[in-house]
Design brief:
single chain, about 400 residues, alpha/beta, Rossmann fold, Arc Repressor Mutant, subunit A, 3 domains, five-stranded parallel sheet, three-stranded antiparallel sheet, 8 strands, globular
Length: about 400
């Protein structure tokens, strides 16, 4: 059991990541592209970014479009302006290249786990004195900033080094991109600069990929300021896992933890979670703990335990405090309509709620991206996680 990951945290072990195959393949086929990946809290955005990282690191070396991934947690490094962000991006690129180059070539899993451990140290090391010497910058005050011209020069230099190792580009993966969009003084400059690299800079654009991942406010910010970065980006909302993906995840956990889960139990997991990746992991952990402790766990007890242990998670998804990035009034109205109707389209839900069609569509995108409803064929939507529905219903009592 000690070798199992903590399933409350992001998955950073290839052996325990399941799903998102289509999106991963799209990124592998075209890593030097602008993408925006959106999802609610606990929807597995960071786990997906980890998977993108190891997927690109182990792409087929014969591909002509292999890109070296650089994963940056913006909530951790917290850049204070665009020049500081560009400095961090180059530092992280240099550090990642150094660590990857030094690794012995063994199995994918062991390589990647070793790489992640070292890279975490590198994340902190970008603030160590002397790292500035890794590239040429006229910066006598040792400010951790890099002007655009120096960023381009250093990036081109590193691209040349990467080509010697069968990488033909760089894909910067920025986790927690809402940190940037909340910076009123320089967020617009950052978005415009990245758009410029992808749209106008012929030296950089074929070899430069960027992935921004965050909550709904990342897209709403782009729309608010009319940013052309949004126009050239592939915007993707994460959604609940499919039935086949849930089956794979359950099979994986059953095999690793020897959980004797029956077909009836698998059906119950799907019904209660609606494919929400975090809820699937957590309910399996409850069941696994029960088997290990040799205690019986009835359906009603399981539901009560989950509702009690994850009350704060559900409250955050429902966004009772109306914080930026979570569900709002339109999402609440639309969800209540689905609770009543069980299934609906944009048109039928618009008629039921009195909201405009575009307001309903936006609310549905957020609810799907939060993992609490499911998108079906032919524009239909339905309630997803029954556990969350039970929590919402109890709030009205």
């Amino acid at each position: 059991m000690d070798n199992f990951p903590d399933f409350k945290l992001a998955i950073d072990d290839p052996d325990f990541f399941v799903g998102r195959d289509i999106l991963l393949e799209e990124v592998k086929q075209n890593p030097c592209k602008a993408r925006i990946i959106l999802g609610g809290r606990r929807m597995g955005k960071t786990s997906l970014l980890n998977a993108i990282q190891w997927s690109l690191l182990y792409s087929n070396s014969n591909q002509s479009n292999c890109a070296f991934p650089v994963l940056i947690n913006l909530q951790l490094v917290q850049p204070n302006n665009l020049d500081n962000l560009l400095y961090i991006m180059i530092c992280q690129l240099i550090k990642a290249m150094e660590e990857w180059h030094e690794l012995p070539k063994s199995s994918l899993r062991e390589d990647y786990r070793s790489y992640r451990r070292q890279l975490v140290k590198g994340t902190i090391a970008i603030k160590l004195p002397g790292l500035e010497a890794s590239f040429e910058v006229d910066n006598p005050n040792r400010e951790r900033r890099l002007i655009k011209e120096d960023f381009k020069r250093e990036l081109l230099k590193k691209l040349s080094d990467l080509r010697q190792n069968n990488f033909n580009g760089v894909c910067f993966i920025l986790d927690g991109a809402e940190f940037i969009t909340r910076q009123e003084s320089w967020a617009g400059d950052a978005c415009s600069y990245f758009r410029g690299l992808k749209d106008f800079d012929r030296d950089i654009r074929p070899f430069f990929g960027i992935i921004l991942s965050g909550y709904r406010e990342v897209k709403e910010y782009q729309q608010k300021i009319g940013s052309k970065l949004l126009n050239i980006s592939d915007v993707r909302w994460l959604n609940a896992l499919s039935h086949s993906e849930i089956d794979r995840l359950i099979t994986q956990r059953k095999q690793h933890e020897n959980i004797p889960l029956s077909d009836e139990g698998v059906t119950l997991v799907k019904e209660l979670t609606g494919g929400h990746p975090y809820l699937v992991q957590q309910i399996l952990s409850f069941i696994s703990d029960s088997f290990r402790k040799k205690t019986s766990l009835k359906k009603e007890e399981l539901i009560e335990d989950i509702l009690e242990h994850h009350d704060n998670d559900f409250s955050t998804w429902w966004n009772e405090s109306h914080e930026v990035g979570g569900c709002g009034d339109n999402e609440h109205l639309t969800y209540y309509a689905l609770v009543e109707k069980r299934q609906g389209t944009v048109k039928s839900l618009s008629e039921h709620t009195g909201l405009k069609g575009r307001e309903v569509k936006h609310a549905l995108d957020v609810l799907v991206g939060t993992g609490i409803i499911q998108s079906l064929d032919k524009g239909n939507y339905k309630i997803g996680a029954r556990l969350f529905e039970e929590w919402v219903v109890r709030q009205k009592i």
